[in-house]
Amino acid sequence: MDGMRDLGRMRRTLSLRTRLALVFFAITLLSVAALYLYVAPGLQSRLIGEKLTAVAHSARVHSAALSRTVGSSMSVREVQRLVNRTASLSGDRVTLLSVNQAFGHPQLFELTDSGPPNSVPVRQSIAQRAVSTRQIATGTEAGPNGGTAVAAYPVRYGQRVASVIVYSAPVSDVLRTVSTVRHEILVAGALALLLAL
Q1: What is the sign, positive or negative, of the torsion defined by CA atoms of 152, 153, 155, 156?
Q2: What angle do CA 33, 148, 173 make, to 5 degrees?
Q3: Which H/E stretch holds residue 95?
Q4: Residues 6+ apart with CB under 8 A from 98
Q5: Which residues neighbour 197 within 8 Å (Cβ) at sequence distance 6 or greater?
Q6: Whole-number Cα distances in Å, 19 to 9, 27, 31, 54, 142
Q7: Whole-prediction pTM
Q8: Confidence band of 193 (pLDDT split at 50, 70, 90)
Q9: Are 45 and 53 in contact (CB under 8 A)?
Q10: d(Cα 149, Cα 58) in Å, to the nearest integer?
Q11: Which residue from 10, 24, 91, 192 puts its CA 20 to 30 A from 100's CA?
Q12: If DSSP codes are grouped into helix, strand and coil, which group holds residue 104?
């Protein structure tokens, strides 16, 4: 009789332990999932936001000298030197676009670029927005080497926007950081789940 009672007690104890283990496992799993699904994407958007703020700041701080070349008699070679110097000071790729009107719509053409000769031309969607709003426009653009943070600074000449200075910086470092954080969350989560079991 005593043996039956002891066996019943053991079963109840094991059942309680199993339930507690499952509860801890479920809590840990939910915590890891929340970190992976909420923290990592939030971190990525914050870091890209900081990158966009940085290129917009560069556009405000470093565009004065280049703006003065619009409508001037400065040669293309001198403008290219100034674009390269601006890129060196800002730490961003700098592209100077000319704005011409064709059939009532602005058309953008690349004048000079601080990027290497074989680099992919900057996309013009954000520069077009800067022309239409006459204000600095920022955004990200997809590319073959990952995304790019872009700030487009419109330059007025007379009554119209005559040029756009585009500052661009890769966001591949942001994507690498977020990927590392996600990996660390998964590793730490796996260890936590093993400990919970």
Answers
A1: positive
A2: 55
A3: strand 93-102
A4: 108, 109, 110, 111, 162, 163
A5: 21, 25
A6: 15, 12, 18, 51, 48
A7: 0.74
A8: low
A9: no
A10: 12
A11: 91
A12: coil
Quick one: how many helices (H) and strands (E) in the chain? 6, 5
Share of the chain above pLDDT 70, in %: 80
Report d(CA 150, CA 126) in Å as an integer: 7
22's enclosing H/E stretch is: helix 2-34
DSSP-derived letter for residue 13 is H
pLDDT in tens, 17-38: 777 667 777 777 777 777 667 6
Mean pLDDT estimate for the chain: 81
Q: Based on the number of CB atoms within 10 Å of its own CB, is 152 exposed (0-12), middle (13-18) or buried (19 or more)?
A: buried
Q: How far is CA 197 from the centre of its chain?
A: 38
- What is the C-alpha to C-alpha distance for residues 121 and 97, in angstroms, rounded to an integer? 11
Q: What's the gap between Cα 160 and its chain centre?
A: 31
Place of tokens 């920022």: 138
Give the gyration radius of the chain's Cα atoms: 28
Distance (Å, rounded) from C-alpha 37 to C-alpha 55? 28
Determine the Cα–Cα distance for residues 7 and 137; give it in Å rounded to an integer.
74
CB 150 within 8 A of CB 124: no
Residues in the chain: 197
**Sign of torsion over alpha carbons 5, 7, 13, 16:** negative
